[in-house]
Structures are given as C-alpha cells and as structure tokens.
Amino acid sequence: MDLEQLVARWGLLALLIGAGVEGETVVVLGGISVSRELLAPVPAVLAAATGSFIADQLFFAIGRRSRSAGIVVRAQRRAAFARILRTLERRPVAFIFAFRFLWGLRTISPIAIGTSAVPTRLFVMVNAAAALCWATLFVTLGAVFGEALGSAIGEFAPLEHSFAIGIAAILAIAATYWVVRRRRLRGRD
C-alpha cells in the first residue's frame, strides 16, 4: 500500500486523533493533504474539529469531576491557572472561544474551566463552535500552504518527501516540548 492509499484510508482518523493529541501541526498537514486532493476539505475540517472538541471535553470533564487527580493538581500549581480563572470570570464566552488559539493554554484551559462555575452546557456549545472555527482556519492554512509549496517546488518533490518533512517537524516539536517540560518539572522538585 502506498502513501496515497494510506492517507485515503486512514487520513481522517489520523487527523481526528492528531487534532486532539497534538493540534495545529497535524491539522495543517491535513490541509496539505486537502491541497493534494488526498482528503476532501469538509470531512478534513470536521475530523479536525471533532478531535479538538473531544480532547477539550475530556480535559473539561477531568477538571469538573476529578479535582484531586494529579493532572488537575499539577495544573492548579501553574501561574497560568489563576490567570485563566480571572480572565474566565470577566469574559467566559470569549475565553472559552479563544483559548485554543493561545499558545501554551490548550490543555490547561479546559481543566481550569472544568474547575470553575461555568455551566457544562455553555462550555459544550462554545467549545463546539470554537473547534469548528479553529479546524477551518488550520485546514485552510495547510491547504493554502500546500498549494504554495506545490507551486514553489513544482512536481520535483514526491508526496512522500512532503509527508516525511511534516512527520519530522512533528517529532521535532514533540521532542522539544518533552525536553522543555522535563526541565520545568525538574526545576520544581
């Protein structure tokens, strides 16, 4: 099975999972797949939005129901947690809509919101709308970037090279995140 068949068969599922676990990088790669006509635009946006929505709902539920869980306790120790709650008190709908666009707040925000008095129904509705806007933006950026990349390098670079570069970028970002996180955690011990 070649790469195009793999993307056609598993691309939407990979996009759904990747949007929830990693975020923008995977969704931009999904947009590049759209520009290469390996994925259709609307299903790509819906898969990315669904993955993001599910991940945020999961973190919200953890904050709401498991306040003594390790992930919640560690989140509460971060300085950003208190800032999130203050901002949430002033502008709950705007913050719920915007947090996924703010670097570094993607995971901690739904946990903090879960510990707050924000009604679950409000979070679900705003989170769904925000996930759809976010997915549309990043799939579109990937599609535009994919078209521009295709125009810039022509047909000289096979599809496998583009995906290899994308996967390498994801791995580099994940490794950097892991190293920085480990250093921060060691500094707190």
From TrEMBL:
The keyword Oxidoreductase does not apply. This is Membrane protein DedA with SNARE-associated domain. The chain crosses the membrane at residues 12-32, 38-62, 122-143, 163-180. Residues 23-143 form the VTT domain. Pfam families: VTT_dom. It comes from the Bacteria. It comes from Sphingomonas jejuensis. Keywords: Membrane, Transmembrane, Transmembrane helix.
